[in-house]
Sequence to fold (433 residues):
Amino acid sequence: IDHHPFNVNDKGNLEIGGLDTIDLAQKYGTPLYVYDVSIIRENCRAFVNTFRELGVNAQVAYASKAFSSIAMLQVVKQEGLSLDVVSEGELFTALQAEFPVEKIHLHGNNKSFHELTMAIENNIGCIVVDNFYEIQMIEKLLQEHNKEIDILMRVTPGIISKTHQYIMTGNEDSKFGFNLHNGQADEAFKLLYNHDYIRFKGLHCHIGSQIFETDRFVSATDLLFKKLKEWKNDYGFVPDILNLGGGFGIRYTSEDKPLPYNKYVEALVSNVKQHVEDVNIQMPEIWIEPGRAIAGNAGITLYTIGSIKKIPGVREYISVDGGLTDNLRPALYQAKYEGVVANKVNQPTTNEVSIAGKCCESGDMLIWDLPVPKIESGDILAVFSTGAYGYSMSSHYNRFPKAAVVFVEDGVDKQVVQRETFQDVVKNDLSYE
Ligand code: LLP
Fold:
């Protein structure tokens, strides 16, 4: 566990936030997501404080798709962050958490009329406009409501990020945003600039997720400024805001080598500062949207080990009581994780096993070839870094109820999402008899 921010207690059990994970598993059952809230706070502060130290006006918006729940958004609110939502459901959750509306930004490549209405009626801080259809809807709605709103234009800069194809978003062949190079962004600019009631504030770009190199972010910013320079020369446009997206990588396994978060911020800011001098404009506000980097390493998942199947000379399958229903990432992206037997952390590892989920899918494997001590059914497995895109991408496949979420801070545990019951699983089913 050397690479994870957790301790082992005298009993040899894994601890999180000062509490024994085995006690938590007994108290709340498994599978169980547990977050160390102090790590969420640390992550928030790493971004916010770096901007502050650099003296740059900024908004750090938590990308709530990574993990949205009322309690999570309350913590993020306490830390003074802004919030990125991409749907009515995420916006609804933010409103339930009483998140300050002026700090909420709405994203999406196919926002519905209803979604935009909800955003405008609730006076959220900013809509990141993605396409021409959306511009028309926003104009209509603002007219009807006799309101104005801040808008950023999402552009795709044509950057290939070194990550899984499914989480690449800045490349040219993408469903997101206006293409920066084929005239689309210019066309959108003409519609938005000097608008009567759309307050066009600047550009947004997000190049992808789980990115480790600062050079990709820097190249994207270079391309934004190439366009901004043109728009300044041709129209005198100067952006108030530049949103450079999220995607800052975290460590899942030893293959991942993220930088400390301040390094990403410093690289972005220093690049923007150079361009600002070059184009001779005022420093815009810098916005970023980390999701995984806020929630990812703060969360672990606890499972109970059940069946053990040895195939001599081939492999040992250790099955747990969850799987792709609570963590889709291995099945969807071949994502890799590390884990430990939480009640045997100090015991020497003796062999390698593969951790299987309990869904009816051969692809429901959580970890291949994990070194473990001698395992028995009933042991508790902890998988690390499951705080982002775990609960948020969970499903009811095979009619599994969704797992509970517990927050731990300063040695105190609090359930923040209840475990679903079987009644919850069938609650929308109607009879056909
Ligand atoms: N901003 C925008 C516009 C995004 O599309 C995303 C992620 C983020 C921010 C936050 O990215 P992050 O900092 O969390 O990497 N389900 C996938 C990740 C998909 C992310 C989609 N957009 C996964 O489990 O890896």
Q: What stands out?
A: The longest helix spans residues 214-235.
